[in-house]
Design brief:
With 354 residues, the chain is of the alpha/beta class. The chain is 43% helix and 13% strand. The protein has an eight-stranded parallel β-barrel, surrounded by seven helices. It has a two-stranded antiparallel sheet with strand order 1-12. Helix 2 (76-92) packs parallel to helix 12.
């Protein structure tokens, strides 16, 4: 590990501020959801209020197929954000993802990740980097999971972010082996999770063959963590980040790739630039089981407090329910079978999967 504890806390504080207020989105590349068309059904034979949004996922049942995805940890402000968003997830029946637990490895930042008391029934996803997972014994990872009461563990993959980050990791060999070991030895599900650059066909196939059955594609088109680290860099050290700002597999393409990968993934979570219920519906129709929202929820919380976040999520859920009615899908399972038309580059991305 190349970053001190104080450096981690400072970096996490910067991340919150930049994600809440900064220009850290992709400028040119999109999620490609604009090239996904859902087919309208004028005779849905459904009642809007009776549409079933619930899903079983990772051993829990969500009231709606939405996860407030991993964002932060390791600072006092992160503690407040995590607890507020986790309590919202509990209230609404969503899943909740913790940010990287790397700051917990010395045992002095646990409080910023403690949300189980405000979210006693919520699906909570723990989180550790693949590089840190490689360096930790299974018992140590089990301890990290236990300390936050997580129901599953996300192992995040972020090489693009790391190589742009000053003092970030540069050695990534052994990450796949660590995921394979932990998927076999841990008592909770392991989720392979990107951090905004998406999962391509070669990576998806290797992850699946390693026995990891759950995937969070976290595709390109939303927050660019390369852009986040570029903003944090000294003015004279931003050339690499500038060159790689648009790097990655768009979210819609990554979902298609994940669905077509063999052996099949039991769980596909679509995160990366999803900010509306319509986009969540498109992701599920492409093959995702749930959609994750991160930065838009954080922005709504920072701008409008709890009421602002709840209002934003009300709109997302209302859109999702409306779209399900308009494609004749009375359940999330039915939505996953809805007809879709692909345009733009999506057919070419799909053709990459052999």
């Amino acid at each position: 590990m190349t970053t001190t504890d104080s450096g981690i806390s400072e970096r996490k504080a910067d991340h919150i501020e930049l994600c809440a207020t900064g220009d850290v989105g992709f400028h040119q590349k999109t999620t490609l959801f604009e090239h996904v068309e859902l087919v309208h059904d004028s005779l849905p034979e459904l009642a809007l209020d009776e549409i079933d949004l619930s899903i079983p996922i990772l051993g829990k049942k969500l009231r709606a197929p939405l996860i407030i995805s991993a964002m932060t940890g390791g600072t006092a402000r992160a503690r407040d954000i995590n607890r507020e968003l986790a309590s919202i997830a509990e209230e609404r029946g969503y899943g909740f993802g913790l940010g990287s637990q790397r700051a917990m490895l010395r045992g002095d930042r646990d409080d910023t990740y403690q949300v189980r008391d405000v979210a006693p029934t919520t699906l909570i996803l723990g989180n550790i980097g693949a590089v840190q997972a490689r360096e930790l014994a299974t018992d140590a990872v089990t301890d990290l999971i236990g300390r936050v009461g997580a129901d599953a563990l996300c192992i995040h993959l972020n090489p693009a972010q790391e190589i742009v980050q000053a003092g970030g990791d540069r050695y990534f060999a052994g990450a796949l082996g660590a995921m394979e070991r932990l998927a076999e030895e841990l008592s909770v599900p392991v989720v392979a999770k990107e951090t905004g650059c998406g999962i391509g066909p070669r990576t998806a196939k290797r992850i699946a063959r390693a026995g990891v059955k759950h995937l969070d594609v976290s595709g390109a088109g939303g927050t660019s963590w390369v852009a986040v680290e570029t903003e944090r860099a000294a003015p004279g050290a931003r050339s690499l980040g500038t060159a790689l700002r648009e790097w990655g597999v768009p979210t819609a393409a990554a979902v298609i790739i994940a669905k077509k990968t063999r052996p099949r993934f039991e769980t596909i979570v679509a995160t990366g630039g999803i900010k509306t219920g319509l986009e969540a519906a498109k992701a599920i129709a492409l093959g995702a089981h749930a959609a994750g929202l991160a930065r838009p929820v954080l922005q709504a919380l920072v701008a409008g407090g709890r009421a602002g976040a709840l209002g934003f999520l009300d709109q997302v859920e209302a859109e999702l329910r409306a779209v399900m009615l308009l494609v004749g899908a009375g359940s999330v399972r039915s939505l996953r079978k809805a007809q879709v038309l692909l345009s733009g580059d999506l057919p070419r991305w799909s053709a990459l999967v052999q």
